[in-house]
């Protein structure tokens, strides 16, 4: 990795690196590899990483490496008199022309690269750590929104259209609240609702006085904002509107040719050349390297019972709960965290209640402040966001594969996008998303060579099951409960 980063800096050749390391302390092992060439390079470099990673690098890794390498790589403007040299850290948006190392969180970097001032730093080599989330970061950056308070701002800015604005707000409120309640309260805007909004914008746009939030929303709507939805706040009797691009490849493809970029992620694609990932982000051909977990120190014990009913059958939930209960009883003597990932929200609540009646306060639902021997019941999103804050689990049980749910209207809209273009929406979207989520989820278990149990037999009975198993390699697999596995994990 260090050589690839050094080559990118020296020759301007971009690279994509899949480290195979996806969580917590386990993930930090590779960061020294890209920091060393960055700190030894005499010209400007941009390092993009999540805020928590940036803070760790700034406080721990960079000062240690600077001292060990005996380098004085400038990281910021000169510090005030008496300040420690290690405190001289660059703030990306304030130091565009700074000649040293600039640290940027994804939101700041994307705002600058996709903004009007992109030419000021487009030629600087860029290292991006954590590109597993680059698509979602970009879509979030490109999402325009209107919240309840923005309607009042619009009426103040365009007082001559107050009646029309109030009428549109009432019509949209009535349309939104006709949707049946559901957990995420997220709904795609129907054609009639979209036409109501378009009519409003055609009335207020000529005034040239509309607030920034409204002008941004309308600009996104007219450009590539094909993903349009409402978030309902039933208790408050209000709603928020959102508009975002379905695909970000077209936008991102414009920034890859300026200068060398090294993209570093855990497991972004099953294949080394990452064709689906590159298509998703509009990446050109580039050097691609994929590191695999070590079979000696990072192998997991994989339990997949082959007799369970499929998840879409009425018998599944009852059998699943009993199987998880048996698994917990057999591993009761093992010290360490147990994590149960359940994507179905009602099932997650039901499972937690049943287990709490037997295992008591050990059972916690989506909390990070848990005991050493806790049983954590969680959804996929919570585990992805907080696994780095928890100890490595000795047992990770997965109810069903993390295939994006077609009940989510945003997923439905993206699938419809692929269908309109006669593309394989499952292979290009649903399956890659599931494999990425799955590999990130099991990363912490590799730290202690623990047990991963999967109760979704589609892994065994569907054609894509082999890709799922390949993504989880290396592993030792059985289809029966082995007490020696559970007691030694």
Terminal Cα separation, in Å? 31 Å
Oligomer: single chain
Could you name the CATH homologous superfamily of the largest domain? Answer: P-loop containing nucleotide triphosphate hydrolases
Q: How many whole angstroms does the radius of gyration measure?
A: 25 Å
Provide the CATH top-level class of the largest domain: Alpha Beta
Biggest beta-sheet profile: 7 strands, parallel
If you had to describe this structure to a student in words, what would you say it looks like?
This protein has 489 residues and is an alpha/beta fold. It has three domains: 2-141 and 248-290, Rossmann fold, CATH 3.40.50; 144-244, no CATH class; 300-488, P-loop containing nucleotide triphosphate hydrolases (Rossmann fold), CATH 3.40.50.300. It has helices spanning 2-11, 24-28, 31-40, 51-69, 106-113, 134-141, 148-157, 162-176, 191-204, 212-222, 249-252, 275-281, 316-330, 345-359, 380-386, 409-420, 425-446, 458-461, 465-472, 483-488; strands at 15-18, 45-48, 101-104, 126-129, 144-146, 186-188, 227-233, 238-244, 261-265, 287-290, 300-303, 338-341, 363-365, 375-378, 395-398, 451-454, 475-478. The strands form three sheets. The chain has a seven-stranded parallel beta sheet. Helix 4 links the parallel strand 2 (45-48) and strand 3. Helix 1 packs parallel to helix 3 and helix 17 (425-446) packs parallel to helix 19 (465-472). The longest helix is centred in the last third of the chain and has 22 residues, at 425-446. The chain is globular. The chain starts with a helix and ends with a helix. Mean pLDDT is 88; it is low at 76-94.
